[in-house]
Amino acid sequence: VMSILLHGDAAFAGQGVVYETFHLSDLPSYTTNGTIHVVVNNQIGFTTDPRMARSSPYPTDVARVVNAPIFHVNADDPEAVMYVCSVAAEWRNTFNKDVVVDLVCYRRRGHNEMDEPMFTQPLMYKQIHKQVPVLKKYADKLIADGTVTLQEFEEEIAKYDRICEEAYTRSKDKKILHIKHWLDSPWPGFFNADGEPKSMSCPPTGISEEMLTHIGNVASSVPVKDFKIHSGLSRILKARSEMTENRLVDWALAEYMAFGSVLKEGIHVRLSGQDVERGTF
């Protein structure tokens, strides 16, 4: 399995979650053994110039915090993009570390139907309107090289247009949305025959008082004989033991009982994060 994340340039530099995810990328309990980050860098964040959006030259500089290699590639050169993506996949496969592909490109039209970029970026959009679209640029190169003929190119375009038109026509006739078709491996019993989620009612999860008492006693005891325990911890264990005896619970004991009952059923529980190691909660 290889994880690929697709980002916009402004979001990559500006969203804290990107920086945070990089810092999780090599932690023992969180690593995915390397993520490939593909940044569609159209050099504008909605209507914001890069100089107003970040303090570093490249949006991808945020990846430097984990020394991830960053490939800046001209998106108008499809073969260079393919080459760089192959190198990125090989890097990830060899070193199991994050890698970033920065596709330097441009946005031909507005951010949405209502947006006219000439209002806010007139000089940039004058340049963009002069650019030959990447498809035409690459097709002309292939035809000039004799790799494909004009007829083959036009047939390929017509074929793609036909696929889009047929899908659009079919979409108008759709009456039922088959949610399960969107999942690679639908969970058995999660959807009914029509692809709709089943009722979300929870089955009863209660356990006997005897079991709760047993978990409470285990949670307030030390498993090793003659183990010298910190006096602060022994006070906590004593208080927990008294609570169990008096049929009382606080958040920590209730949580303990929940985890304990799941463990009793043979289900593995993993605790991770800043506070669980020392049992703050």
Give the key terms:
four-stranded parallel sheet, 10 helices, 281 residues, alpha/beta, Rossmann fold
Can you describe this structure?
The protein is an alpha/beta fold and 281 residues long. The protein has 3 domains: 3-130, Thiamin diphosphate (ThDP)-binding fold, Pyr/PP domains (Rossmann fold); 132-169, no CATH class; 209-265, no CATH class. Helix content is 43%, strand content 9%. Strands 1-2-4-3 form a 4-stranded parallel β-sheet. Helix 8 runs antiparallel to helix 9 (231-245).
Mean pLDDT: 90
End-to-end gap: 35 Å
Radius of gyration of CA atoms, rounded to a whole number: 29 Å
In CATH terms, the superfamily of the largest domain is: Thiamin diphosphate (ThDP)-binding fold, Pyr/PP domains
Q: Any low-confidence stretches, pLDDT <50, length ≥5?
A: none
Q: Categorize the overall geometry.
A: elongated
In CATH, the architecture of the largest domain is 3-Layer(aba) Sandwich
CATH topology of the largest domain: Rossmann fold
H and E order? EHHEHEHEHHHHHH
Beta-strand proportion: 5-15%
Q: DSSP helix count? A: 10
Please, how many domains?
A: 3
> How many DSSP-defined strands?
4
Briefly, what CATH class of the largest domain?
Alpha Beta
Strand order of the largest sheet: 1-2-4-3
Main beta sheet = 4 strands, parallel
User: What percent of residues adopt helix (DSSP H or I)?
Assistant: 40-55%
Task: Classify the oligomer.
Answer: single chain
SS content category:
alpha/beta
Protein name: OGDHL protein
Cofactor: thiamine diphosphate
Domain Dehydrogenase E1 component: 2-179
Family: Belongs to the alpha-ketoglutarate dehydrogenase family.
